[in-house]
Amino acid sequence: MALPTVADVTTTTAADRMLAVRRIYHEPSVTTYDRGLEVLDRFPDAERVEVASWQDIPGLYGNPGSVEDWVRNKREVLVLGEKKSLSARPNGRSADFIAPSTSNGCAMACSYCYVPRRKGYANPITVFVNIDKIAGYLARHVKRTGPKTEPNQCDPVDWVYDLGENGDCSVDALVSDNVRDLVDLYADLPGAKASFATKFVNRDLLGWNPRGGTRVRFSLMPHEMARRLDLRTSKISERIAAVNDFVAAGYEVHLNFSPVVVHEEWLGQWRNLLREVDDVLDDVAKAQLACEVIFLTHNADLHEVNLGWHPRGEDLLWRPDLQEGKVSHSGQANLRYRAAWKARWRDQLLDLIATETPYLRVRYAF
Ligand code: SF4
Fold it and tell me: Whose CA is nearest to atom 3 of ligand 1?
């Protein structure tokens, strides 16, 4: 029997730390899908609880009492359901289109994450098992859209489809083959490219064959910030160290500087981070590199939730002395940096990028 490689051992350890699934909530129909059966087989010892809808699980969602179980739910609970409505939404920032999700929720626990705002209080991974329908929809959408005739900041040639708006695809790949199926799909779809931001280094992805059809955007922030805010994620140095390997494996790799959190020492910390990127990345990786820069927007309800499970992060995220209120499209009370100050800070960070990593093209910054 072949001994496990170093990569196998690393991935197994990371996967075990991330997930120990004890309970699976599932819609009744999931057992009629191969993907549903595969995931259930992958966790044979988990208790199975049938629910009418993945969106309405009493005791799990919208339950303020479960804030104490925030991380335990992420590690021990999985939800399986069907994605009912399929549509690719125009975006224009991280991608040209937001693809219909193949999952919703995340096993990691970044304290600024906007995904749980929509569900309230618990947000474990939900896997959508009708992957064939989702992949078929995307292939038809690419065909219907036709070739991109004008370059834009998303990509000069390809239409870019964001796969990971509601979760983290690298962690999803520990649970099911949904992400691999889509990476395979885009490897063979001329004129289109998949893309996802990630905070987890899953080296299993290095064994796939993306053939340039998938852009991985490793999310980075200064180490000091990540230690307080990016809970359960791969360390920043590990993410930076993975860039060369992912490029060599056939992915396009960009950087996602998000969220940029402003505090008294933020600019010096960003200088150190950019210098680390410059030291570690090889010339091949640098030649294809680009980034996006997104300053923090926080949320009043999320602030209240976070005070219940991780108050230390709120010292950084909740800064009314630097922020101003803004009601979102969906009526949520958000806080973002005061407009005039943010414009100045954005320019300072862009100047720093131009000085420390002049090859790093900024796709957009806001
Ligand atoms: S990795 Fe992304 S989806 Fe997961 S908790 Fe962090 S911000 Fe949210």
Answer: 167
Question: Which class for 251: exposed (0-12), middle (13-18), buried (19 or more C-beta within 10 A)?
Answer: buried
At 306-336, the pLDDT tens digits run 888 889 999 999 999 999 999 988 888 999 9
Total-model pTM: 0.94
Helix (H) or strand (E) holding 344: helix 339-356
DSSP secondary structure letters along 175-202: T-SHHHHHHHHHHT-TTEEEEEEESS--
Among residues 29, 38, 46, 118, which one has the least CA distance to residue 82? 29
Mutate to test the pocket of ligand 1, among 75, 108, 297 (most ligand atoms within 8 A of CB): 108
The two tokens of residue 165 are: 């708006």
Instruction: Count the Cβ atoms, other than its own, within 10 Å of residue 284.
Output: 11
What's the CA-to-centroid distance between 143 and ligand 1, angstroms?
A: 31
